[in-house]
């Protein structure tokens, strides 16, 4: 690489740095609403001990220093399609004990790892075959973006897997609740017994529901929140059915047995649909691989005899 190209590359990097510094200094200038907000803000109605922690990592000083950069990076990630509402919804569906800020921090860490991997790859390629600045910069940027998108896709996959596990556990949990209620226990005690004796994705959500109920939220409202935290219609109907039964005083055991039967029927229909799709997918190797080879083996001896005869 010629000295002129190196000088142009260094000037480009320096110019980009100056532009970023000027943009950041301009963004840090306080606006009028920000200046008068501390004098108009209302006092919190609850104790500060119940507030969420302001730091999300074991390094609060470093997190405070990088907070402006992280907030700008979060806005950039939102422009890529991962909005805050969408991320919050997927975190609720996955059942992970994360906040949106913690997820953004993990996404940035994945992007930094991708950036590091891209730099390492570009460096090794430059040592072996020479450095192309434009191609190397593109590879590094693409590696960082792919890593950030991969973390977002991993959250979606975790949410889908958690929802599928809840659907699989629903019949057993409904039957256990029906047995506990038939034995004479109340709805709250039956839910506590099932939460103690089982483990799984649905049990975790039941524990969250019981925690809200112990904190003072009505059990029907907590169950409605459970229905809102799932994307499976069967699980939502299960929670809403229990909430309606608790609210109106209808026989809960029969409702739970009916919910378990509906869940089994839904699982059977889903299994048949998956089996039908797999059967269609199995036709592709049969038609495009096995059948041509069979025809070739059947025709090859005749073709060889014809060739010998000619």
Write the layout of secondary structure elements.
Blueprint: H1 3-27, H2 32-40, H3 60-79, H4 84-94, H5 100-129, H6 133-182, H7 187-197, H8 201-214, H9 219-228, H10 233-248, H11 252-309
Helix pairs in contact: 3-5, 4-6, 5-6, 6-7, 6-11, 7-8, 8-9, 9-10, 10-11
Give the key terms.
transmembrane; 310 residues; membrane; 11 helices; mainly alpha; flat; cell membrane
Q: In summary, what is this structure?
A:
The chain has about 300 residues and is mainly α. The chain is about 80% helix and about 0% strand.
Q: Helices and strands: which structural class?
A: mainly alpha
Number of strands: 0
Instruction: Outline the low-pLDDT stretches.
Output: none
Proportion of residues in helical segments: over 70%
- Our estimate of the beta-strand percent is under 5%
Order of helical and strand elements: HHHHHHHHHHH
> What is the averaged pLDDT score?
79
Largest sheet properties:
none
Distance between the termini: 64 Å
Number of helices: 11
Principal-axes geometry comes out as: flat
| Rg (C-alpha, Å) | 30 Å
Subcellular location: Cell membrane
Membrane topology: Multi-pass membrane protein
Main location: membrane
Keywords: Cell membrane, Membrane, Transmembrane, Transmembrane helix
């Amino acid at each position: 690489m010629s000295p002129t190209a190196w000088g142009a590359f260094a000037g480009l990097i320096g110019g980009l740095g100056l532009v970023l510094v000027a943009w950041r200094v301009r963004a840090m200038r306080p606006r009028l609403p920000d200046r008068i907000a501390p004098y108009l803000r209302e006092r919190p109605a609850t104790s500060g001990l119940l507030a969420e922690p302001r730091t999300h990592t074991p390094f609060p000083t470093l997190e405070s220093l990088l907070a402006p950069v992280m907030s700008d990076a979060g806005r950039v990630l939102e422009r890529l399609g991962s909005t805050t509402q969408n991320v919050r919804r997927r975190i609720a569906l996955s059942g992970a004990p994360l906040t949106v800020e913690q997820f953004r921090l993990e996404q940035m860490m994945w992007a930094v790892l991708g950036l590091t991997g891209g730099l390492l790859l570009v460096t090794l390629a430059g040592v072996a075959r020479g450095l192309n600045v434009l191609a190397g910069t593109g590879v590094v940027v693409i590696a960082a973006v792919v890593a950030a998108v991969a973390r977002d896709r991993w959250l979606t996959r975790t949410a889908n897997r958690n929802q599928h596990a809840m659907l699989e556990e629903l019949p057993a949990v409904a039957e256990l609740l029906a047995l506990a209620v038939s034995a004479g226990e109340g709805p709250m005690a039956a839910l506590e017994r099932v939460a103690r004796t089982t483990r799984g994705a649905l049990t975790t959500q039941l524990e969250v529901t019981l925690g809200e109920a112990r904190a003072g939220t009505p059990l029907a409202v907590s169950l409605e929140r459970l229905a809102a935290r799932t994307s499976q219609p069967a699980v939502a109907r299960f929670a809403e059915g229990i909430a309606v039964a608790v609210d109106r005083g209808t026989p809960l055991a029969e409702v739970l047995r009916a919910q378990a039967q509906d869940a089994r029927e839904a699982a059977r229909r889903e299994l048949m649909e998956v089996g039908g799709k797999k059967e269609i997918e199995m036709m592709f190797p049969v038609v495009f691989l096995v059948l041509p080879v069979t025809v070739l083996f059947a025709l090859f001896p005749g073709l060889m005899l014809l060739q010998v005869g000619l």
